[in-house]
Amino acid sequence: MYKDLEGKTVVITGASTGIGRAAAVRFGQEKANVLINYLSHEENIPALIAEVEAAGGRALALRGDVTKEEDVKKLVETAHEHFGSLDVMINNAGIENEVPSQELSADDWRKVLDVNLTGAFLGSREAISYMLEHEIRGAVINVSSVHEMIPWPHFVHYAASKGGIKMMTETLALEFAPKGIRVNNIGPGAIDTPINESKFADEQARAGVEALIPMGYIGKPEEIAAVAAWLASSESSYVTGITLFADGGMTKYPSFQGGRG
C-alpha cells in the first residue's frame, strides 16, 4: 500500500469489468477517491462501488463514452465537484475485434482507433488541463498493450491504436515533465479478463497463449492494477514517459527461451 494515495482522486475509464474494475478496487484499498467511468455492464456498478467503499475508499460512478469530448469533460468536472480534485487519470477503456486486414472496414478501423487512441488522448488532455489549472503534480496512466511492440495479424487496428498510445504517452511526458505531471503507459500481456473469457475457456487455446509467456501463466487483472498503483504513487516519482510491460516476459522473444535459435 502507498500512503500518499490516501485521499487522492483517481478517475478510471472503462472500469466496469476487467483491468479497470481491478484498478478501482485497488485504489479503494489505497483509500483513494475513485470515479468509475463505464459505458456498458451497468449491472456491475453497484457491487463495484460497494467493494471500493468496503476496502476503505470513496466511490462514484458516471456513465460516459470516452470518444465524446463532452463526456470526458464531464468526468473531470464531476471529479472536481464531488471529490474536490483530480490527481490521477487512468485511461483504460479499450476494445478489440479480430478481422483479417484485407477485410477490415473503415468503420471498424475508426471505431477501435476512436475508443483506444482518441479516448486516451481526450482523457489525457482534459486531465492535464485540469492539473495545470490547479497546479497539481499529477499522474496520467494509459493502458496500452504488448501489441504496441508486438505485431498482431488480424488486429491491425488494435495494434495501430496501441502503437499510437505509446508515442502519445512519450510526447505528453516530455511536454509536461517541467510541470511535474508524469505520463506513463502500462503494457499488459495476456490477462484473464472478460474480453478473453471465451478464448481462455478452451484448454488448447489457453495452452497456446501460455506457451508465449516465459513465466508460463496468464496474468490476473489485479497484477495490472498493482502496476497502476505504483505508477500513481510517489514511489515512482522519477518515472515518466515509459511503457511498463506487465506481461510475464511476453515481449522478450519467448521462442528463444532455453537457448533456442
From TrEMBL:
UniProt-listed Gene3D superfamilies: NAD(P)-binding Rossmann-like Domain (3.40.50.720)
Keywords in alphabetical order: Oxidoreductase
Residues annotated as domain Ketoreductase: 8-189
Keyword Cytoplasm: no
GO MF term list: glucose 1-dehydrogenase [NAD(P)+] activity
Pfam families, sorted: adh_short_C2
Sequence intervals crossing the membrane: none
Entry's EC annotation: 1.1.1.47
Reactions it catalyzes: D-glucose + NADP(+) = D-glucono-1,5-lactone + NADPH + H(+); D-glucose + NAD(+) = D-glucono-1,5-lactone + NADH + H(+)
InterPro entries registered for this protein in UniProt: KR_dom, NAD(P)-bd_dom_sf, Sc_DH/Rdtase_CS, SDR_fam
Subunit text: Homotetramer.
Family indicated by similarity: Belongs to the short-chain dehydrogenases/reductases (SDR) family.
Entry-linked NCBIfam families: PRK07231.1, PRK08936.1
Protein name as catalogued: glucose 1-dehydrogenase [NAD(P)(+)]
